[in-house]
Design goal:
- This protein is an alpha/beta fold.
- It is 23% helix and 26% strand.
- The protein contains 20 helices and 39 strands.
- α7 runs parallel beside α12.
- The chain is globular.
Amino acid sequence: MEDSFRCKMMPPPLLRFFFFLALFLFAWRAAATEGKRTTFMFLVDTSLRPSPFPSDRHWYSSLLPSTSSRLFHHYQSLLHGFSASLTPSQARAIGEHRGVVAVSPDSLLRTHTTRSPSFLCLDLRGSRLSALSHRGSAAVIGFIDTGIWPERPSFSDRGLGPPPRRWRGECEEGPGFNRSHCNRKLVGARSFSAGYAAAFDVGGQDELRSARDHDGHGTHVASIAAGASVAGAGFEGFARGLARGMAPRARIAVYKVCWAEGCMVSDVVAAIEKAVSDGVDVVSLSIGSSSPAPFYHLDPLAVATFRASLQGVFVAASAGNGGPSPGSVANSPPWITTIGAGTIDRYFPAVVRLGNGACVRGTSISMRPREPRRRHLVHLFSVGRITAADTNLTSQHINGRIVLWESGRRAARIETGAALKRAGAVGTVVYHGDVDPEGILAEPHVVPTVAVGSRGAAIIEAYIRTARNPTAVISSEGTELLPGDAPEVASFSARGPNPSVPWVLKPDILAPGVNIVGAWTDAIGPSGWAADIRRPWFSVMSGTSMACPHVSGVAALLRAARPRWGPWEIRSALMTTAAASPPVGDEAGEGGPPAAGAGHLRPERAVDPGLVYDLMYDDYVGLLCGLNYTAKSIRILTGKAAAPCEPSGDKGVWGFNYPAFVAAAEEIASTGELVFHRRLKRVDGGGPCRRYRAVVAAPAGYAAVVEPERLWFSGMDGETVAFRVVLSEARGSGGRGRRHWWKGGSLTWREEEGKHAVRSPIVVLFRRYMTKEEEVVL
């Protein structure tokens, strides 16, 4: 009996056959991959250019293996190098040349897909920042996105004077777009598609030569940040009122890099380089990748954004929509301000009234407000989870019915709703299941749709199973304001800890990103479905893509109001004045700094923070040294020669002058304590001496000692004072507390003679309580 379970040896001739077959298949696949051309990006040290070449471009061209290869992009300001289509072996050969310091394959990024000025208190009488907003006309925001639909009233230049004299941008002409589409509001428009055309072999399409927006995403985010005031705005009867951007007088420059399948890094880097040379003050990136390079010097996008920051440009980027999974945050380099998405106090309520009299509440913008989809009861039918929009639905008994369905993790909800409509559904009720149990979004479906939470869906499902003839009516209740319920972290908003450097808090801050009204393209309906004939001036979208331009616009206001501030002073002001007490709520139930960063954006406080954490170039070099970067790696990232790293108590990871304190519990336990070194700079304009007192709320089970406990500032604006925070396990606690993967606290410097309070989160991360998915970042 035992022998029947033993593996029998394969005959030697057959074994040899399968061995050589496997070897052949492996060699064939390797050869096929080796011969396939793709785009590579090369960073170059131009000081090593051979003397016979009159220019960098001539040198780069000489490195290419044949006349069939050509340069797609020539990087020459922020960074030096080029991109070209090559086989892997050709790219390796070029990488061995003297002067070529880094090689990386091109990669694909994707977009992270009005009441918010009022919600952020920018419309209140006496608003200091709004009073200063007339200066915002001197600020230029560069949007790296899908382009723009320039005819929308949000981009009117009424009341604006000429662009700033320093502005060097221009409007490039292309199919459907000419110079006359630009004005004193829209001061620049360019497109970058060489990398995309090579990757997807679509070089002949007209769209690739124009800044006109055929997607809607770029038009939407530009209007959120800097749209002019438009009365009577709204979407299909919802959210009617005055729509305007955060900085309604700021100038807009668009750099179209995203096309039908996404955005190639080589094009994005070229756009950032051009934006900086054009003279933008802010770069807004509502795009990103969930799998960036493991080291910053190997990531061309990280290199470009770092060097942009060194030139004084504030770089804002969306955190991504991978939440609520821990470690899902994108765009996490320390020099980028990374923004998560929160809710606002505006809601679009809808109701599912069941045949048994029960009501389930949800949200909808796909039915006319206050008008039931059917005045008589319609049969209900449940199809369960749908994991792809192309699921064959025609066989289901859904014709003429309202369909209850669950969206899978990768389901495209609007496309699935369109598929249900094609199959005969007269309405749908959607829920997200265990992916996002109670997070519901109002989306512009082409079929009347109500989104409900999982608890509500369970009530409907039980009714369908038990009723002999289940029926329902779905209806919208219009637009309502619920001031007490917001802000909360949106369940989809990506979470920390930072996957690259856990000791730098990401996201940095939270901003409105749910049910945001913004301008829309005329090229496609708001659903993105080809058969959608609607062409509204405005649409409603949710995502960290919508949160990012809120911060971009506020940064433009701060740059105009505080022209001496650099990008890191602006970020510090935003973070240390953010709303975090009482704690920001969370749709997914986790909350805290890994979800909300330093807290929710409060622009009015940010204009006058009192003190800022002033990051400098040496701080970044110290951080990189603390992360064991070599002098060569630091030179690739910074573009400057770097001396060998030296150990220093007030530099490195713990001396990085960032407005948050993050540590791993295991490091505290192994060393007994961790010492953070920080410094604060006075930015209130000077005047009488000021004294600040430290108020500490240590994470549970830990002690935090601040030395000194008081900071004295003389009357000089710009004065800097250093301090340190010693974090250790509380005596007798052993770091014990609730079994969770993080614990939070805070340090607040309170001005004793005035109004300023400078708050920073303190976070302790626990590897031993993390899942495998969470632990990978530590």
